[in-house]
Design a protein that fits this description.
The complex is a heterodimer.
Chain A: H1 10-38, H2 40-51, E1 52-57, E2 64-65, E3 71-84, H3 85-88, H4 94-103, H5 108-120, E4 126-130, H6 135-143, E5 151-160, H7 168-171, E6 174-176, H8 179-182, H9 185-189, E7 197-199, H10 202-206, H11 208-212, E8 216-222, E9 228-235, E10 243-245, H12 249-260, E11 267-272, E12 279-285, H13 291-296, H14 300-311, H15 320-323, H16 333-342, E13 358-361, E14 364-367, H17 377-382, H18 386-407, H19 429-435, H20 444-450, H21 461-472, E15 476-477, E16 483-486, E17 514-515, H22 520-535, E18 551-557, E19 572-579, E20 586-592, H23 598-618
Parallel strand pairs in A: 2-10
Antiparallel strand pairs in A: 1-8, 2-3, 3-4, 3-5, 6-7, 8-9, 10-16, 11-12, 11-20, 13-14, 15-17, 18-19, 19-20
Helix pairs in contact in A: 4-5, 12-23, 16-18, 16-22, 18-20
Chain B: H1 2-12, H2 15-35, H3 41-60, H4 64-69, H5 71-84, E1 91-94, E2 97-103, E3 107-109, H6 111-127, H7 137-156, H8 160-176, H9 181-205, H10 210-220, H11 232-244, H12 271-304, H13 308-332, H14 350-368
The chains are: A alpha+beta, B mainly alpha.
């Protein structure tokens, strides 16, 4: 140093500064080491993740056809407004509610509820803000790109169902997977994630794995505002497989029309091929519009519509064919007749029993609707003689009736490929104990009630149809089903090829068909009795078609006690049938709720469907008079026991 | 005579210092180009380098003592610039700070960067007399005033970040002007105690606002801080630095943190993060090493100075540069709060670059005249 400055330790002070410089920059290098070498990998990964986005490409869902290849359900492309979750991480979602609700014409409250749900869910790719965006919405999103860079418009296939509610209970519907479903392990194993559209009901649910396909994705690089800069990878979606149902749209339409034109517009018609269990038509009225769930459920109107459906006393969401139980009335007499003969309670040679206009058990008289003298089994069926079957029931005893129930699977689900089928209630000692704990003992009067389709017999239409169709097939009870075929996918010989799939019982331990051994002569006798119901002046004779041997049985299911059976509490009207009687092609059941006598309402409805079937298969106008729906009250002549005092359900 | 001086000048010229500075600028220019490949910032930086070199040579071959004699004039000129920048129409407002003067043809420059040099000159001149005794209170007050005037004007812009870089200039000058050590110790002690205390009092009374608090919090725990808003810059910078790893990131320039605009201000405030992403730990260490050597050369030059004022000027520059380097890199590494302080010689910015070269020119000039009296 050129100048004298020893007094201030200048040299030392300079040295100090130099050391300070080195220490400060040295400290920086330590921090650098930590960030780049120690944590480098992790930060690189985080940085990589924040610029990568995986944008799903939804797989088109399989088309659903009828048995003749007509489209029932397909999908059309719609546009959705999506919010990238990565871009709103940490942002206050609530601050978006107002501008989004105004800009996209959404309901504030629904959006707020939805965002609450979103917050509790694990992180995933995107949040669906608006489904089915209009061109105006899309323009709004594009115009507000700077303000809301997290918004994006994506194309998505949307399910389109017949808009008159046709087949709604069969098809079911699709919708967004629920948080509860996502917690299930089976759902997790399928790789489903929030926002995925799955089948929630009907065959959409049962065959979801086939119909759904697998979503593809685009892996892209985005900038800090979420704008796509580059595409790294594209994985094409695997489309869902097309599905051919056993439904015949012509017959289905006929069945739906019959229900729509019925007195109460409430009821069921099921049509099935007894040779294999294929359901040709399944109509349950009233019905609903499944498009509500696939298209409108996120709107205020849609929710109100759904709430109205849930609160509707006529329960339109219920599939009456498999989820409602009704007393079968006199249709119950068919399996009774078979089992009575089989078990030897009566024999074909000595099948006559007294009608007696009714029966007295203890001090209680239960009457028959007519006086049939001493009919044999065929006549008893033809004229639906209650007195005959009271006595047959007593001969069989409760154990005989239980055996019958078991043999015809009436106490089990039919195994139809629809979700949430209920089990019928059938007579047994145990059932009475549960129903009447104050009088738990099974008595003869109970056997009488159980023998003509009331009180202890409360069954689903589908299980009755299966039983009757099985009897028409000499005891072969097929599992009713809706799947004809899942179409093959891909090219044969390639690893992606998937062969066609046909119906398999959901419960693989059940035989299909279940064979009930019925001696041929017994079967013939009962079939003849049923033939006579329509063709020889029986209770269903008004629907006779010459040359097309309809066999059938009417039923009138009592709702309340005698004398009160008017208006809303009228009896349920049943008709169960198959044709031609000796070489069956089609079996059907009709139930019109609270309409009255079976022969006057259910049977003519069935005839309407038979007409369509006949035209379709015989290519000519159906023979016999075209039956008009009868509006005027019928004199309650031949069937059903309407005089029982016991009405407890 | 001129020829002799020139011959000796070229021999005594601090080549290492000059070349190191040029090297850092060129390396920085590459990083600026990486940060903003589509913008002409890197070309402007090269123009700035050319201007800086001319200024450096011009000053190096001028007798610094003559320049220091004019220090008050330069100082006043500097103050005028700081006033001009505040006049609407002359000053350019960017991000709420009126800190730039528009120059036709070149763009804009920041007078507060130049005024650092003139202030250092003024301080060097005032404290440059031979010392016979310890620093007096009067001297300290005058020193404080010399610094206080430009700081006051800069606060009006307002540019608190720049103001911070002025403080070490005075601190170093006072430290080397025989300030009593117990005063130094006392002020360090007070600072150590007062910083957390005033922070806590500030938080309690609400003087320090939530977002400012967050800016401090993010330093301790960047991963759990509010990464979207206040902590965003720091967090993104940390990610960028970390991604560099040992030898630099594998991703392309287009997919880099700056290319996708995750890293804000990549060519200025966060140029070091860009460097880290592209050249990794190795490159970063080399840059730090270059700075250490550069600063050491300057300190060596200060030691060789033939008078106090030369020594003080160089050390004031060292103080200012070191502080800026530490704050800027610390900001990129997430250990100091985000304040807009450029990295000397590397951040894109004409004024900062030219001012630094002027300071280096001074240092070279001082060394060249170490044997003449």
């Amino acid at each position: 140093m050129k100048f004298e400055d020893t007094s201030q330790n200048l040299r030392a002070r300079l040295r100090f500064i130099q050391i300070l410089v080195i220490v400060m920059l040295g400290a920086l290098s330590v921090r650098l080491y930590v960030l780049q070498v120690v944590r480098g990998e992790r930060y690189a990964e985080i940085a990589e993740n924040q610029r990568r986005r995986r944008l799903p490409i939804p797989a088109p869902r399989g088309v659903i056809f009828d048995r003749e290849g007509r489209v029932i359900v397909d999908s059309r492309p719609i546009y959705n407004v999506i919010m990238s979750r990565e871009d709103v991480k940490g942002k206050d979602l609530n601050s978006l509610i107002l501008p989004l609700a105004e800009g996209l014409n959404l309901d504030k409250d629904i959006l707020r509820d939805y965002f609450e749900v979103v917050k509790t869910m694990p992180a995933f790719e995107s949040i669906l803000v608006k489904q089915g965006a209009t061109p105006g919405d899309i323009a709004w999103v594009e115009a507000h790109n700077l303000e809301f860079p997290e918004l994006r418009v994506e194309q998505q296939p949307q399910r389109r169902y017949p808009d008159n509610g046709s087949l709604a209970h069969v098809l079911g519907y699709v919708g967004e997977i629920s948080p509860e479903q996502l917690k299930q392990q089976a759902v997790k194993d399928k790789g489903l994630k929030p926002g995925d559209i799955i089948g929630l009901s009907g065959i959409e649910q049962i065959y979801d794995d086939y119909l759904r396909g697998r979503d593809g994705y685009r892996e892209v690089v985005v900038d800090s505002r979420g704008r796509i800069q580059d595409q790294i990878e594209i994985v094409d979606p695997i489309p869902g497989r097309d599905l051919v149902t056993t439904i015949d749209l012509d017959i289905q339409k006929a069945a739906e029309e019959q229900l729509a034109n019925s007195v109460t517009k409430r009821g069921v018609i099921i049509s099935m091929d007894p040779n294999n269990g294929e359901i040709l038509a399944l109509a349950s009225a009233p019905t609903f519009d499944p498009n509500l769930f696939s298209q409108r459920i996120t709107t205020r109107e849609g929710r109100a519509e759904y709430a109205a459906l849930l609160n509707d006393p006529e329960t339109p969401l219920l599939n009456r064919a498999i989820q409602s139980r009704y007393p079968p009335g006199s249709t119950w007499k068919i399996p009774m007749a078979i089992s009575g003969l089989k078990q030897g309670a009566i024999t074909l040679d000595h099948s006559t029993l007294v009608c007696g206009g009714g029966i007295t058990i203890g001090n209680k008289f239960t009457r028959c609707m007519g006086n049939h003298g001493t009919p044999d089994i065929k006549t008893a069926i033809t004229h639906s003689c209650d007195g005959y079957f009271y006595r047959l029931g007593l001969k069989m005893g409760i154990d005989g009736i239980v055996e019958m129930v078991d043999e015809f699977d009436l106490n089990k689900r039919t195994g139809i490929d629809l979700p949430n089928e209920v089990v019928s209630w059938t007579p047994s000692r145990e059932f009475k104990r549960r129903m009447q704990p104050r009088d738990p003992e099974w008595r003869d009067i109970d056997t009488v009630y159980a023998s003509f389709g009331q009180v202890y017999d409360i069954i689903t239409p589908i299980s009755l149809l299966r039983t009757i169709a099985g009897i028409s097939m000499d005891g072969r009870l097929y599992i009713p089903h809706l799947l004809k075929e899942v179409k093959a996918f891909g090219n044969p010989g390639t690893p992606d090829f998937r062969g066609p799939v046909t119906f398999q019982p959901l419960d693989s331990s059940r035989p299909n068909p279940k064979v009930v051994a019925i001696p041929e002569d017994i079967d013939q006798a009962v079939v003849e009795g049923m033939w006579r119901v329509v063709n020889a002046g029986g209770t269903g004779s008004r629907i006779q078609m010459a040359g097309f041997d309809i066999a059938g049985k009417t039923g009138t299911a009592q709702v309340v006690g005698l004398g009160k059976d008017t208006g809303k509490n009228k009896d349920h009207s049943w008709f169960v049938t198959y044709a031609p009687a000796y070489k069956p092609e089609i079996a059907m059941v009709a139930l019109i709720e609270n309409s009255g006598f079976g022969g006057s309402h259910a049977a003519p409805a069935i005839r309407g469907v038979y007409d369509v079937y006949y035209r379709k298969t015989r290519h000519e106008e159906p023979p016999g008079m075209v039956v008009k729906q009868i509006a005027k009250a019928e004199p309650p002549t031949p069937t059903a026991a309407q005089q029982t005092a016991v009405v407890s359900r | 005579m001129v020829a002799i001086i020139h011959k000796r000048s070229w021999r005594d010229f601090d080549w290492i210092l000059a070349l190191l500075a040029i090297g850092i600028v060129l390396f920085g220019t590459v990083q600026i180009r990486n940060a903003q490949p589509t913008e002409p910032y890197w070309i402007k930086q090269l123009i700035g380098l050319a201007i800086g070199l001319v200024a450096m040579l011009a000053i190096a071959f001028t007798d610094y003592r003559r320049l220091l004699n004019f220090a008050p004039a330069f100082y006043v000129f500097g103050l005028i610039l700081l006033i001009v920048v505040l006049i609407p129409g002359f000053g350019l407002r960017i991000n709420g700070q009126q800190a730039w003067i528009k120059v036709p043809g070149i763009g804009q420059f920041q007078p507060s960067e130049f005024v650092k040099v003139t202030t250092a000159m003024m301080l060097a001149r005032y404290f440059g007399k031979n010392r016979v005794q310890a620093l007096t209170l009067k001297e300290m007050i005058v020193g404080g005033l010399i610094l206080g005037l430009p700081i006051g004007l800069i606060l009006l812009e307002p540019d608190a970040g720049s103001v911070l870089t002025y403080l070490p200039i005075l601190a170093v000058v006072l430290f080397l002007s025989a300030i009593k050590l117990r005063l130094v110790l006392a002020s360090v002690l007070i600072a150590v105690v007062m910083l957390p205390v005033s922070y806590m009092v500030g938080v309690k009374t609400g003087v320090i606002k939530g977002y400012q608090q967050e800016r401090i919090n993010v330093i301790w725990d960047p991963e759990n801080a509010d990464r979207r808003r206040v902590g965003y810059h720091t967090w993104q910078s940390i990610l960028t630095v970390g991604e560099g790893g040992l030898f630099g990131s594998r991703s392309s320039v287009e997919h880099s943190q700056s290319g996708l605009k995750f890293l804000p201000e990549p060519h200025t405030d966060f140029i070091y993060a860009v460097t880290a992403e592209n050249s990794g730990f190795v490159g970063c260490l080399l840059v730090l090493l270059a700075y250490v050597i550069l600063l050491s050369r300057l300190i060596t030059g200060a030691r060789r100075s033939s008078d106090r004022s030369g020594m003080l000027f160089i050390m004031a520059v060292v103080g200012g540069l070191t502080f800026q380097i530490f704050i800027n890199i610390g900001m990129a590494l997430g250990i100091s709060p985000v304040i807009g302080v450029p990295l000397p010689l590397m951040s894109a910015g004409l004024a900062s670059l030219v001012a630094t070269f002027i300071a280096i020119g001074f240092a070279i000039s001082i060394q060249l005249r170490r044997f003449v009296n």
